[in-house]
Amino acid sequence: MTLKFNNIYINESAVVAGPYLYNGPLSGKFDDCYSDFYDKEKTFEDCEIKELEKCIKILLKKISLYNKDIDAMFSSDLTNQLYISNFAAEKLKIPYIGIYNACASFTAELILASSLLNNKDINNVICTTSGHNLTSERQFRSPVEYGSPKPDYSTFTVSAATACLLTKTKSPIKIESGTIGKVYDLGVKDSFDMGSAMAPAAAETFYEHLINNDIDENYYDLIITGDLGVYGEEIFKKYCNEIFNIDLKNYYDSATKVYDMNNKKVLAGGSGPSCLPSYVFSYIIPKMKNKEIKRVLLLATGALLSTTSVNHKKSIPCICHAICLEAI
Amino acid sequence: MTLKFNNIYINESAVVAGPYLYNGPLSGKFDDCYSDFYDKEKTFEDCEIKELEKCIKILLKKISLYNKDIDAMFSSDLTNQLYISNFAAEKLKIPYIGIYNACASFTAELILASSLLNNKDINNVICTTSGHNLTSERQFRSPVEYGSPKPDYSTFTVSAATACLLTKTKSPIKIESGTIGKVYDLGVKDSFDMGSAMAPAAAETFYEHLINNDIDENYYDLIITGDLGVYGEEIFKKYCNEIFNIDLKNYYDSATKVYDMNNKKVLAGGSGPSCLPSYVFSYIIPKMKNKEIKRVLLLATGALLSTTSVNHKKSIPCICHAICLEAI
């Protein structure tokens, strides 16, 4: 299902980057950083909550608004029952709705926030995501035990908090349209291999978005998926080519752009709900503001598994939601 | 934050009720029932997925629509990473966004669906919730082990799938307004005592909804919270009285209405994301259609804890979102 939006803008954004991200290729482009997984807190979760809260405070400072000026906040993370988002929302006292579509939550939030702004009483909506490598290793990436070896097609969850403000006030980055995706499951059962599992969902939403908008792939200066990783990126291209006869040129996956890929620890690249937005906010939006890129299609992908579904030996249902950004 | 909606309606609804609910005081008012926690499936989760899928199919049959006619579906449940919603969405192939605000998800979904329907391309949106006593005991109600005794102020998760269709086509039940709540945490740490934890969040959202609409409590024929339970209901009334000087007459909590309260197993009453909607769809909406009740305020409450936050000895952040239904 594709929605067209009128006069909805990404007004401002902020990223607080953690280990592996802050000293990678995007180094120096973030609003704030932390260099270890505790950042002086007692638990990984408290660290993640702190960074999310910090990120939203940085965003509010940038736009000279107070918490009370924000009409609603959408937030998502990978922890069970959205532990991180819930506790950050409690501290911030901003009207809050939790979203869970795994790493596709970012674009789901942008679609919902853009719709909410259609209401005349709504003026400022924040969309946030949070990721922390070790909170997600603990709760999400079953059956990984700490320190166990991983295959090289596994991705490495991005530790970062991201936030952006959507408004009706004209700004350089417009949200032009969005497509809400369906869930696809082609039978991949290996929970390390999320790239292979998610690539078909990304391709299906991409194709639906093109058809519904009556455009082809060349309409976009750039198409970015996130987070398929090195191998998932290739599968996505192949799927688009073989199933939909689309030969992609102006495309890559954000998972391969956020880390120093020479570091073997990051394996097939980044993942997590903050992977795509941390890349988009720190690298793509500045380029759009400089008129280097005009139209971008973001395809955020989510692997909708849980430790319980993996233990039940289920395959991995996956989803992708699309958002088109335009520099004006 | 309060939103006013124009021409948004609950077109039709469906409930599939499980053990304790189907043979309680609402017996005979449901669309379908199952009498044991497996219902011929191998796991509790497979049972819950089956009932959710069945419920949506019943809804689609009632409204003579096919899956492809539905523009979007919001779904929520209590399992980690929304296991149930994700797998049901995969089977249904309806554009899907997962929501998590614990037992407040129902009204959050109605607010989001109503907003989405402001878009001219959107005509049919489904809001669903799913609950299963034993999947939530396993993943959510830490530190409860199977068979361990529980205090009498504990609630008993409702096993049911619920679904409703929101449209712009005129129907007897109108969604008039909604309030997105903030997160409140007054320091309750006992994860059995969710009623006490959630009551203040319910009262705060209730008061904000009245102020923003410039009305008093008598504007509504009926005010229903869900799911505070026997004790939380009393705390809510006391909080409203002492903090906001509101003396509630036309109010009760749905947790106390869904079970045979003489059954000691159900303790302080029902809970879970399906508690309030299963009551509203099976009992309140028929009364509204019969013109016995005109205006109802629904205050769905959510306890935003997780097993990890409980193990970290955190207190319980809570939220409540309000929805006003009007019979026309």
Describe this structure in words.
- The structure is a homodimer of 328-residue chains.
- The first copy, chain A, is of the alpha/beta class and 328 residues long.
- Chain A folds into 2 domains: 6-167, Stage V sporulation protein AD (Peroxisomal Thiolase, Chain A, domain 1, 3-Layer(aba) Sandwich), CATH 3.40.47; 173-327, Stage V sporulation protein AD (Peroxisomal Thiolase, Chain A, domain 1).
- The first copy, chain A, contains 8 helices and 14 strands.
- The first copy, chain A, has helices at 44-62, 83-92, 105-116, 133-139, 194-213, 229-244, 275-289, 307-311, and strands at 2-4, 9-17, 32-33, 72-76, 96-98, 124-131, 156-157, 160-167, 173-179, 222-226, 251-253, 270-271, 295-303, 318-327.
- In chain A, strands 1, 2, 3, 4, 5, 6, 8, 9, 10, 11, 13 and 14 form a 12-stranded mixed β-sheet that branches. A two-stranded parallel sheet of chain A has the order 7-12.
- The mean pLDDT of chain A is 95.
- Chains A and B meet through strand 1, helix 2, strand 5, helix 3 and helix 8 of A and strand 1, helix 2, strand 5, helix 3 and helix 8 of B.
Q: Give the assembly state of these chains.
A: homodimer
Fraction in helix of chain A: 25-40%
Total domain count of chain A: 2
Largest interface: A-B, 58 and 58 residues
Shape annotation of chain A: globular
Strand elements of chain A, count = 14
CATH superfamily of the largest domain in chain A: Stage V sporulation protein AD
Write the H/E string of chain A, N to C: EEEHEHEHEHEEEHEHEEHEHE
